[in-house]
Structures are given as structure tokens and as C-alpha cells.
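Researcher: I'd like a structural prediction for the single chain below. Treat it as a standalone chain; there are no partners to consider.
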Amino acid sequence: MKYIPKKSNNEPKEVIEKRTTPGSSFDDLPKEPLRKALLIEQGYICAYCMQRIKNDSKSTKIEHWSPRSKKNEKDFMNLLAVCKGNEGVKGKEHCDTLKKNKKFSISPVDKSCEKLVQFDSGGKVYSNNENIDVELNEVLGLNQWHLVEERRELLDMVKVAVENIAKNKFENKIKEADLNNMLKNWQALKKNVIIIHGEKIVEKKYEPFCQVAITYLQKKMARLS
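Model: Treating it as a single chain, here is the predicted structure.
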């Protein structure tokens, strides 16, 4: 899970106008600009599993982190963009599709989420906090086999990259500076240029599952210190 630096002033004007209209509800909010604002904050990855998501209703849902109520349903700070989570595939659901209106203890808007959610060498997600560990599996379903496999493949790729750099170093040992450069690369938003109706649009995106690589490199750097 990657920390989302969410800010209330990122809420689109069109959404604010509808939100402040007396009698309006979440269902009345304009979803396209709302979804786009959430995706920009999140670097176009799911707030829970970190898969790539897009600004369309086919691949992306707008989720209430704290279960939806009349009090919070229009609160921009409570809204996240998430993947469809195998919607309609019984037994394989994850993220909001599995969570529905259940509570989850930590929010990706809280910086501590990156320390509380960890990944093992086989690509499984876990937490040293027992309650959160249970919720990662039972509330969000983040250890569905295809998610574990994608995380494992990414970890293997990063490990190979580290080994290749080490081969060219004295005593075949990678330096902290090299790991730091790799870390910065995974932490960075990558520019992606698309053309829509003849207009050039620049999107800034994180790599899918980037926090898996970030966590691995941070741990490796800590061992060198």
C-alpha cells in the first residue's frame, strides 16, 4: 500500500459545486472529474492493491475508505480510486469489491500505512500488526494468487537489477548510493503523454506495485547502514 498525499484543495470545482448543492448526494457528483482528481493524487494506481487503473468506469471505482454514510459520502478526503477487484468472480474478489461497506483499520492517506503493510520475498502482503494482517486478507483480499504473483515477479526483477549492478562493483557488492538511485526511480512519478481529441495531455504515473520495490530497496539499504 502506498501513501497518498491527499489534499482537500485537489477537489475539482465541478464536484464542489454539486457537493454544496442542497439535497445532493454522492450519486449526484460528476464522476469523471472526481475520478480524474483521485487518479492524479494516486499516480494512477489502485489505492489498495496498486494495480494500474484508468479514468473510466470500466476499470476504476470510487471508494469510500470509511464506510459510506450521509455524513461522509461527499467528503473528498474519504474518497479513493480503486480497481474493480475481480468484480463478479466469486471467491476471487479483492479491494473495494470484497471490502464493500466493511471497516479497514489503516488508510492509504495515513503515512504510517507504508510501514504497517509489508511484503515478503514471495510477493505476499502482511503486517506485523495482527489485526491489520487479518484485514489485508479478509477485508481487502490482497493475497489473491494473481496479485501475489505480480508482486513476486516485480521483486524478482528488482533483485536481478541489484545483482547486475553489484557484478560491476568491487567485491561484487552494491553500494548504498546505487540502491538510493534505484529507490528514487521507483518513488518517482513517470510522465506519460497521451493524445485525446488532438490535445496533448501529460499524465504522471507510478509504476504498478511500486511500493513493493520501494520496501525491498529500503530494507536492503538499511542492512548496508
